[in-house]
Amino acid sequence: MFRHMIAVQQMARRGICSSARRQVDNKVPQKQKMFQEDNGMPVHLKGGSTDALLYRATMALTVLGVGYTLYELGKASFPRKKD
User: What is the pLDDT of residues 17-70, one digit of tens each?
Assistant: First the structure.
């Protein structure tokens, strides 16, 4: 029983992937330093051009959504006349 538990633990530690393991650099300290430096930039834009693109896309979709909602509310508040 004990031998079976050790085998299961080794399999769990090894993982399911059969490809060769590769070392991944720990980039967390560098990211923390980048996001914590005081350079006057908002934190949601400190990630670079990808963050800026995502921010602008989100703002554009928000403005379009609000505009469309107001249009539909205006359209619903004035019912069509029946001919």
Answer: 666 678 889 999 998 998 899 989 888 888 889 999 999 999 999 999 999 999
Q: Which amino acid is at 67?
A: G
Question: In the chain, what is the straight-line distance between the N-terminal and C-terminal CA atoms, in Å?
Answer: 84
Amino acid, res. 51: D
Tallying the residues shown for the chain, one arrives at 83
pTM for the model stands at: 0.57
**What are the backbone angles phi and psi of residue 76, rounded to the nearest 5°?**
-75, -25
CB 55, CB 44: distance < 8 Å: yes
Q: Which amino acid is at 48?
A: G
Q: Structure tokens of 32?
A: 């923390």
Instruction: Find tokens 């059969």 and name the residue.
Output: 18
| Residue 45 near residue 51 (C-beta atoms within 8 A) | yes
